[in-house]
Every structure is written in structure tokens, then in C-alpha cells.
Automatic annotation (TrEMBL), chain A:
Keywords: Signal
Matches recorded under Pfam families: SBP_bac_8 (PF13416), TAT_signal (PF10518)
Gene Ontology CC terms: outer membrane-bounded periplasmic space
The keyword Signal is annotated on this UniProt entry: yes
UniProt superkingdom: Bacteria
InterPro entries found in the cross-reference section: SBP, TAT_signal, TAT_signal_bac_arc
One GO-annotated biological process of the protein: thiamine transport
Protein's name according to its UniProt entry: ABC transporter, periplasmic spermidine putrescine-binding protein PotD
One GO MF term: thiamine binding
PROSITE patterns: TAT (PS51318)
Signal sequence coordinates: 1-27
Automatic annotation (TrEMBL), chain B:
Transmembrane residue ranges: 12-41, 72-95, 107-132, 184-206, 241-260
Stated family: Belongs to the binding-protein-dependent transport system permease family.
Subcellular location: Cell inner membrane; Cell membrane
Database matches in InterPro entries: MetI-like, MetI-like_sf
GO biological process, one term: transmembrane transport
One Gene Ontology cellular component annotation held by this UniProt entry: plasma membrane
Keywords: Cell inner membrane, Cell membrane, Membrane, Transmembrane, Transmembrane helix, Transport
Domain ABC transmembrane type-1: 72-261
Protein name: Spermidine Putrescine ABC transporter permease component potC
Membrane topology qualifier: Multi-pass membrane protein
Length: 343, 270
């Protein structure tokens, strides 16, 4: 067919009409939608987890993929009265931002029966959220480049690791937690941000990375030899045959906690409770442990033999260093500003 | 050495200097593209240049990844509708701009390019609140509106420039020969502004295809554009699949330019 101007315009008009007709379809469907991180998290959740829940409720499902701040912006724009979906998973840093604004329903074992079996630190302030995923943050190191591995967080300041470290950007909650730990360890308390930032400046220069998966290439290529990182990334690198090992810091490991909440004013609130209950079920908690090295918060989960070598047991996870995110949020603007200006 | 020889040497040195400058400029512009395209063919596990071996495995993985393919399809759909709508609306605006004269004309031109002057993030936040008010937040339609808004100025600038090249006498001549307004537009104006119109559409499409911030806040439930899907991918998996996706995006842009060449010829479009 010859591509004439008339053909082009006709085709264009047809495409526009089709686009416009199909536009509102997602908004009007009866699909159950919840949020999830992207990448392998999304793929695994779509392929292995959500089909089971969709079968349980007899409805199709979809995932809203993104990151914490974009979700929070949407919830704030929507207001507590018209949340975009019934249940939500957030890093506790973000949960804390809106938990006092009337968005979330109270979670109780009557509404979410599996809550009766979760470890105590998993139930967050005001019963507005329950931690469904605990991702341990350990210190990974290259066994071929480090002769004497660090034992804990404080060892990162040892001269032998100078120039070999990779760390997170202060916008990542891992860096926030490490800075607060440093304030407490080296200074007068968790809110001693001047001491914390000064101590991190001593470690420089070091690459600052936004997310764990971006630290992995630096460790893989040997550009850095030591880094705090998700346990799951350690497993992935080891499976690729890389000379990587890790230590659980003697002061206690940090954790990325992803908490689940239900929106009080969503018309599909009951399915939201069912979803949170489903995530906390022993079956899904075990699946996450086996596939992502996520520590189960459900105490009834029995970890198989091959997982016993990893620090995922409830008694280990319960001893992780935890933070009050309400207090942390109050400190964060000053901390972020000082960090950006200093390091 | 004579004056003529000296001037010739100086001119030669200037020419060589400019030549080197142009080569450096091309290197500066092309180096990121060459690196990302090269990295997409690596056989290794990391995004790196030069690539470790040659392989198409990351292209295979891209098309195996439903999240990335869905992102590509949504971006193509949003971009196509954006191009068509902005071409139409910008054409009408450019024609209106032609008949506005005096100081008002300057304000009109400024108004048409306002979305470029306001930070994208602020536009996105404002639109987000507005869309929730009219019950269109988190829908494809809401995202589409955002993309049209942000891409409109690119199409407008291109089409308005083309419109300014059309002598007003042609419209008068057409009218004096009995042509209706529609006939004058279809048979006289449209053929003359077609290169600018096509370029405006291509600019709008490419801009829409690349938009990140506004998509981040306005994206529909269950949907992701390709830039968002790629960012999510790179956040959790730093693999060369992203380089393969970027290479495909570059190819799409080249196809767009080829389309302009086929329809109106690049020389007429610039």
C-alpha cells in the first residue's frame, strides 16, 4: 500500500478513536488491585502469589507497580475518603507518614486471623499496619579481596576497608537507619545527626547507591569489597558463583520492613483484610523465605533445613535493630540536608 | 610568506578547529547511544561496555518479560494518541495564533508554551489533585491527558513555525477564487504546513515516550509506561535487559524520523 497523506491521516484518526474508547477500561473493571515493587518482585508476585489469591476470591487481579513516595503522593491527592485500592504494602517509613491521618483501618486478629501468629515487633503502631516482609540487611564482602571480614557495623570505620566501601544514598531508608545507628553508637543518641554525618564523612570517598540491586554490580566487578546489602542479593551473587560472603553484624542486623495496611474507606475493605491475611499465611510467608530470603513474621512457619543457615529465624529477626519511624521522620529532613551538604 | 598565504593558513586552521569541534560534539552526543547499544549485545550478566562477547539473549529476555513488554505497548499507545491529539489541537492553536496580532500575540505564544515553563513535577502534582477531583485519577485517560499537556508545546512550536511561512496572500487568493474555508485549509494550507505538522507529531510522540515524572504520578492502576517499567527494573535488577529496551527505544525514534522522511522529506521538515 502506498503511504499517502490521506491514508496517514485516516489511520491516525482511527488509532486515536480506538485509544479513546479503550481508555477508561482499567478504572471501571472489577479487578482486585494492590501495589507491589517492580522487577523480580512484580514478576514473582504475579506468577506465583497473586493467582492463588485471585482463585480464593474468584476475581481477576492486577498490581500497581511503583515506589513509596509516588504512592504516598497519590494517597494524599486522593484523600483518606477515596483511596485508590483496598490494601497497601509500604516500607514503614512511608506508612508512618500517613498512619495518623485516618487512612488505615485497625487490624485485629478478628479481621486478619493470621495476625495472632506474627511476632510482636511486626504489629506496628496503633495496629494500623502489620509487617509482612522483613528483609534482613547484612554486611556483604568479597572473600577474595577481604582477608579479615568485618564483624559489625563499627568495623566499617576500620582503616583496612578505606576505599573499599559502597553505601546507600541517604534517600534510602538503609542509609537513614545506618546514620541513626551511628549517631547512637558514636554520639549522644539517634538524633545526633551531626556526629553521624561527620562519621560517615570519615569513610569517604565511597559510591552512594539508591537501591540494593545497584550495589550488586559494584561488588561483582570488584569496584567495592564491602557493603551493607539485602540478604537476597547475597544469595543471588553466591548462586552466580561470585566470591561473596556476609556477616550478621554483632551489634544486630538492620531490616527493611514492608508493612501491610487496609484502607478504612475503601468499599472493598473486606477483601483488603483477606489479602493481608493471605500474605501473613504460613504458605506465603514460607514462599517468600524460600524465594526471596525474606524473614517470616509468622511464628508458625517452619523453615526447611536448607534455609537454616540464613538469619531468618523469628528469634534472630526479633533482635534486629528497630527504629521508631515517627521519630525518624522528624529527624530526616535535617539529616538528609546535612548529609547532602557534607558527603 | 605572502599575506594571501598567511590568510589561507589561518582559514585552514580555523576550518580544522571547527572540524575537530564538530567531531567532539558528535562524540559527545553519540557516545551514550553507542555505549548503551553495545552493552545490549553483551553475553555477560552486567551492563558494561565494551560488551563481554556478543549475544541477543537480553533481547530475548526483554520480550519474555511481560512487565517490560506491557510497558512498551502502553507507551506506544499513549504516544500515538498524544501525537495525533497534539497535532490536531496545536494546528488549531497555530491557526488562531496567526490571526491574533499586537501584544496579545506575544502573550498567546507564551501561553501555548506554558507547560514547558512550569516544572514537570509541579504540573504532575497539580494534575494529580485535579484528576482525583474529576474521578479520572489512576486511569489511562488521566495519564493520556498529562502526556498531551506536556507534549503540546513541542507540537505547537513546530506547527506555528510552519504556519508563519504560509503567506496570507495565498488564503486571500484562494478565497477570491471561490474556495470555502475548509477547501482553503485542506488544499492550500495543510499541504504547506505538512512538514511542520509531521515534525510536531514526531516531537510529541518522542516526548511522550520519554516522559517519566508525570507518568510516575499519573500512571493507571495496573499499568506502567516503559520508562517507569525500566526504572523499576533497574531498581531491583541491574541487568542488560534494560540496555536492550533502551536500544529498542532508539530504534523507534529512528523509525519515527524515517517516517517523516517518507511522508514529507526531512529537508522540508527543518
Amino acid at each position: 500500500m502506498t503511504l499517502t497523506r490521506r491514508n496517514f491521516l485516516k489511520t491516525s484518526a482511527g488509532a486515536a478513536a480506538l485509544g479513546a474508547i479503550g481508555a477508561p477500561s482499567l478504572a471501571q473493571s472489577d479487578t482486585f488491585i494492590v501495589n507491589m515493587f517492580g522487577g523480580r518482585w512484580e514478576n514473582d508476585w504475579r506468577e506465583h502469589v497473586m493467582p492463588k489469591f485471585a482463585e480464593q476470591i474468584g476475581r481477576d487481579f492486577d498490581l500497581d507497580i511503583g515506589l513509596g513516595m509516588a504512592w504516598i503522593s497519590n494517597f494524599r491527592a486522593a484523600g483518606a475518603r477515596q483511596p485508590p485500592f483496598p490494601a497497601v504494602m509500604l516500607n514503614e517509613k512511608y506508612t508512618a507518614m500517613i498512619r495518623n491521618d485516618g487512612y488505615f483501618a485497625e487490624l485485629t486478629p478478628e479481621k486478619v486471623p493470621n495476625m495472632a501468629d506474627v511476632i510482636e515487633p511486626a504489629i506496628l503502631k496503633g495496629n494500623t499496619a502489620v509487617t509482612g516482609m522483613l528483609a534482613p540487611l547484612v554486611i556483604a564482602y568479597r572473600t577474595d579481596l577481604v582477608s579479615e571480614p568485618p564483624k559489625g557495623w563499627a568495623d566499617l570505620w576500620d582503616e583496612r576497608f578505606k576505599g573499599q566501601l559502597g553505601l546507600y544514598k541517604i534517600t534510602n531508608s538503609a542509609a537513614t537507619m545506618m546514620a541513626m545507628w551511628a549517631g547512637e553508637h558514636f554520639g549522644s543518641g539517634r538524633d545526633d545527626i551531626e556526629t553521624a554525618v561527620a562519621k560517615f564523612k570519615e569513610l569517604g570517598p565511597f559510591p552512594q547507591i539508591g537501591y540494593s540491586a545497584q550495589l550488586t554490580p559494584l561488588l561483582t566487578q570488584g569496584q567495592i569489597a564491602v557493603a551493607p546489602i539485602d540478604l537476597g542479593e547475597v544469595k543471588t551473587m553466591q548462586e552466580q558463583g561470585l566470591p561473596i560472603d556476609y556477616v550478621v553484624p554483632e551489634e544486630g542486623m538492620l531490616v527493611f520492613d514492608h508493612s501491610f495496611s487496609v484502607f478504612e474507606n475503601h468499599p472493598d475493605k473486606q477483601t483488603g483484610f483477606d489479602y493481608v491475611n493471605f500474605v501473613l499465611s504460613p504458605e506465603i510467608q514460607l514462599w517468600m523465605a524460600e524465594n526471596w530470603l525474606i524473614a517470616p513474621t509468622n511464628k508458625t512457619v517452619e523453615l526447611p533445613e536448607e534455609l537454616q543457615k540464613w538469619p531468618l529465624q523469628p528469634e534472630v529477626v526479633s533482635q534486629a535493630i528497630r527504629f521508631d519511624w515517627d521519630e525518624t521522620l522528624a529527624i530526616m529532613p535535617g539529616l538528609n540536608d546535612l548529609w547532602e551538604r557534607t558527603i | 610568506m605572502s599575506e594571501a598565504t598567511s590568510a589561507f593558513s589561518n582559514q585552514r586552521a580555523v576550518n580544522i578547529g571547527f572540524g575537530v569541534l564538530i567531531v567532539l560534539l558528535y562524540v559527545f552526543l553519540m557516545a551514550p547511544l553507542v555505549m548503551i547499544v553495545g552493552a545490549s549485545f553483551t553475553n555477560g550478566l552486567l551492563i558494561e561496555f565494551p560488551p563481554q562477547g556478543l549475544s541477543l539473549r537480553w533481547y530475548v529476555e526483554f520480550f519474555d518479560r511481560q512487565d517490560l513488554v506491557d510497558g512498551l505497548l502502553l507507551s506506544l499507545r499513549i504516544g500515538a494518541v498524544t501525537a495525533i491529539v497534539t497535532m490536531t489541537v496545536a494546528m488549531m492553536a497555530a491557526m488562531a495564533g496567526q490571526v491574533i496580532s499586537g501584544r496579545l500575540s506575544g502573550w498567546f505564544q507564551l501561553g501555548m508554551t506554558l507547560p514547558l515553563l512550569v516544572p514537570e513535577l509541579l504540573t504532575a502534582v497539580g494534575l494529580l489533585f485535579f484528576l482525583y477531583k474529576i474521578q479520572l485519577a489512576k486511569t489511562v485517560m488521566g495519564l493520556q491527558m498529562g502526556h498531551i499537556l506536556m507534549s503540546f508545546p513541542y507540537a505547537y512550536v513546530s506547527i506555528a513555525a510552519a504556519m508563519r511561512q504560509v503567506p496570507a496572500s495565498l488564503e486571500e487568493a484562494s478565497a477570491s477564487m471561490g474556495a470555502t474555508g475548509w477547501q482553503t485549509f485542506r488544499l492550500v494550507i495543510l499541504p504547506l504546513v505538512m512538514p511542520g505538522l509531521a515534525m510536531g507529531g514526531i516531537f510529541a510522540f518522542i516526548n511522550s515516550f520519554d516522559l517519566y515524572t508525570i507518568s510516575l504520578l499519573l500512571k493507571p492502576l495496573g499499568g506502567n509506561t516503559l520508562p517507569l517499567a525500566l526504572f523499576d527494573f533497574l531498581t531491583y535488577e541491574f541487568k542488560p535487559t534494560a540496555a536492550a529496551a533502551a536500544t529498542l527505544s532508539i530504534l523507534l525514534s529512528i523509525l519515527g524520523v524515517a517516517l517523516v522522511q517518507k511522508l514529507v522529506g526531512l529537508q522540508r521538515a527543518f
